[in-house]
Design a protein that fits this description.
single chain, 204 residues, alpha/beta, Helicase, Ruva Protein, domain 3, Dna Topoisomerase Vi A Subunit, Chain: A, domain 2, 8 helices, 7 strands, 44% helix
């Protein structure tokens, strides 16, 4: 049974969220219309502002509502160490662990030739330019321990190792402890802290 066009459009719009199917979208829509109108209006306003106001940091590619995010503007974090992650959720997981105090670079994905995602699509050239321009001394490759994440980490390491001036950069990979096939956004802070402290050069 179809409802009014406005209700149907609300349900279909909610289905764009990950893990939200038809039934879940209907429950969400009915809740907002029955009991949560004020919350729905707030949600609509926040969505509208975020969709137009949130951009990618010019330095690290993380989400930001200013040209440069707060982490990149923090002078205390410019210590020569940059951690490369696949997504903003991975960055958030590391920040919540509270042990890392360097900079970041968010790839917004990983290499996937099957899906047509190449180095230029995730900003690897921008990363390499930043490493050289800022005189980065350690690059932590914290891509997810998946096939695609490992391939992305090795590609970045190979690109850096192929340049003579880059040989002074220490390239490290997070230590074991993170489950193979898992994602950083779902790893607890204790495991992340130990993984960082036990990191080692990628070549070993």
């Amino acid at each position: 049974m179809a409802f009014s066009p406005l209700v149907d459009e609300l349900v279909e719009s909610l289905r764009c969220l990950p893990g939200v199917g038809q039934k879940t979208a209907q429950r969400m829509a009915f809740h907002l219309l029955e009991k949560g109108r004020s919350g729905g209006e707030r949600l609509a306003g926040a969505l509208a502002q975020a969709m137009t106001g949130v951009r990618r940091c010019e330095t690290c590619q993380n989400f930001s509502d200013t040209p440069t995010c707060g982490i990149c503007e923090d002078d205390r974090r410019r210590n020569g160490t940059v951690c490369v992650v696949e997504s903003p959720s991975d960055l958030l997981a590391i920040e919540q662990a509270g042990d890392y105090r360097g900079g970041y670079f968010v790839l917004m994905g990983h290499l996937s030739p099957i899906d047509g995602v190449g180095p230029e699509d995730i900003g690897i050239n921008r990363l390499l330019q930043r490493v050289r321009a800022e005189g980065v001394t350690e690059l932590i490759l914290a891509t997810n321990p998946t096939v695609e994440g490992e391939a992305t980490a090795h590609y970045i390491a190979d690109r850096l190792d192929s340049g003579g001036a880059d040989r002074k950069i220490l390239i490290t990979r997070l230590a074991h402890g993170i489950p193979v096939g898992g994602e950083l956004g779902y790893v607890d802070g204790f495991t992340l802290t130990h993984a960082f402290r036990g990191r080692k050069p990628l070549a070993e």
